[in-house]
Amino acid sequence: MISATTRKAQSSAMQASVLALNKTYSPVHVISAKRAFCLLSKDIAEVISVEDGSFMNYDFGSWIEISELRAEFNERNELEDWILSVNFEIQVPRVVRLLRYDRIPNNTIKFNRRNIFIRDSYRCQYCQKKFSVKQLSLDHVIPRSHGGGMSWENIVSACRRCNTKKGGRTPSQAGMKLFQKPAKPSRNPVLLQQVKQAKYECWKNFVGSKELLTCD
């Protein structure tokens, strides 16, 4: 019987992020491990593994064999995610290549709360302190009553205390100063957050300075 701890780890592993490349090895999406395994099992994608500076290509069957050998010889590390099925263990790949997809999507950066918080590093743009998502709110730098709209250049993260203090005034009217000038990110904030993590470091081999990826 699988323990509750193991089930939790399995669920977490299935939600791990996987970078999807098109046929020409250009990055196009960030997908979940669950989605990646679905594509692999249907032979729509293959695993791209970065090994000692070189790229290795594996179909689903080969990846299962490689994973079983690594598991047998205990060649696993804490940065990896693993799935335990009924018949075998398999490592969650970090990168897959879509075998039938050669287009680059029309990528856009979604304007939403999550991306604003990530852009601002979860820091209130007035008191400069970091907060949890539940403790943060969105503030119109130029209030709506003054004609301020919903845009990357006019919305910032603010703690509830500072947001209340500022009220329906501009920062100068409230005697408050912005930590940094808000602007639209040049790259997807979610991708930037993930690529900084050690377990997604191999993505740097494929993601250039100007890629804008969609995240599922």
List keywords for this structure.
single chain, alpha+beta, elongated, 7 helices, DNA Binding (I), subunit A, 216 residues, six-stranded mixed β-sheet, two-stranded antiparallel ribbon, 27% helix
User: Cα-atom Rg, whole angstroms?
Assistant: 21 Å
**Mean pLDDT, as a whole number?**
89
Termini, distance in Å?
32 Å
Instruction: Tell me the domain tally.
Output: 2
Provide the structure class: alpha+beta
Largest sheet: 6 strands, mixed
pLDDT under 50 segments (min length 5)? none
Looking at how many chains there are and whether they match, the oligomeric state comes to single chain
Shape: elongated
**SSE sequence, one letter per element:** HEEHEEHEEEHEEHHHE
Strand content: 15-25%
| Arrangement of strands in the largest sheet | 4-3-7-1-2-10
Count of discrete alpha- or pi-helical segments spanning 4 or more residues: 7
Number of strands: 10
